[in-house]
Design goal:
With 243 residues, this protein is of the alpha/beta class. The strands form two sheets. The protein has a five-stranded mixed sheet with strand order 1-2-3-4-5. β3, α4 and β4 form a beta-alpha-beta unit. The termini are far apart.
């Protein structure tokens, strides 16, 4: 059995007066993981306002009738980008997105809206390894959607009837460009949110953390002292030798 060791002395922690009063600062990228679903919705609404510098119009859809569209951002041209916001206590998995993609493609094929330039998922814990690989492989993403259609899409697109993957819908999905699907990193979402007037109120600000305290050197290098300069009668500087 290993011998017990004395308890080490903890390192000193440098804090600002604000941190003493309110506690240590939680980085924004960690804080969004603690958001409730309501806080995440509010955060995404604030984030959407930060996109208005890039897009001519940003609209929030949301709700059960969003047709697979959550935040719709329109470009000066007829193109548009879709952001589908998901709130889970884990990184997104393929089973978390099949219904959204299926609903979106169904309504797009029905002519409810045009095909977007990009379709990006936004989640506080980003995406898991499996989904990250799928989003980098559009052909496999399409194949896996078709394979999972009956389980995740057929009964969730509408409440009135089952949507089978046949006929015109199947042909539409076969021809669809799946390279538009991707995911936003939490850091990029936070950086966009930083441009809004709500960022400081939601994440705090104040003084930056103090840098580590430097220890004084244990030895000082010898310094060669040069004789001081004096001004002679001619106005030129001359060296004064010490006797």
């Amino acid at each position: 059995m290993a011998a017990l060791q004395p308890l080490p002395t903890p390192n000193l922690v440098s804090v600002t007066p604000e941190q003493l009063a309110a506690g240590p600062t939680i980085p924004a990228i960690e804080r969004i993981k603690l958001f409730s679903s309501q806080q995440w919705e509010e955060f995404i609404t604030e984030w959407g306002h930060g996109l208005r510098g890039v897009y001519v119009r940003v609209e929030r859809q949301g709700g059960p009738d969003d047709m697979g569209r959550d935040v719709v951002a329109s470009l000066p041209s007829s193109e548009w980008d879709n952001f589908q916001c998901k709130h889970y206590n884990h990184p997104l998995q393929p089973s978390d997105i099949w219904s959204d993609i299926g609903k979106f493609l169904y309504h797009c094929q029905k002519g409810q809206f045009t095909y977007p330039r990009r379709y990006s998922f936004a989640a506080p814990q980003y995406v898991g390894t499996t989904l990250a690989r799928l989003l980098k492989d559009p052909n496999k993403l399409k194949a896996d959607l078709k394979a999972n259609w009956a389980k995740y899409c057929a009964g969730t697109i509408t409440t009135t009837h089952t949507i089978h993957l046949t006929g015109g819908l199947l042909s539409y999905i076969e021809a669809a460009d799946f390279s538009i699907f991707g995911a936003l990193t939490p850091l990029s979402i936070i950086e966009d949110h930083r441009k809004t007037p709500w960022h400081t109120a939601r994440f705090g600000g104040g003084l930056p953390e103090r840098p580590p305290i430097l220890q004084p050197p244990t030895a000082i290098d010898s310094i060669e002292l040069k004789p001081p300069l004096a001004v002679g009668t001619s106005g030129h500087a001359v060296a004064c030798e010490r006797g």
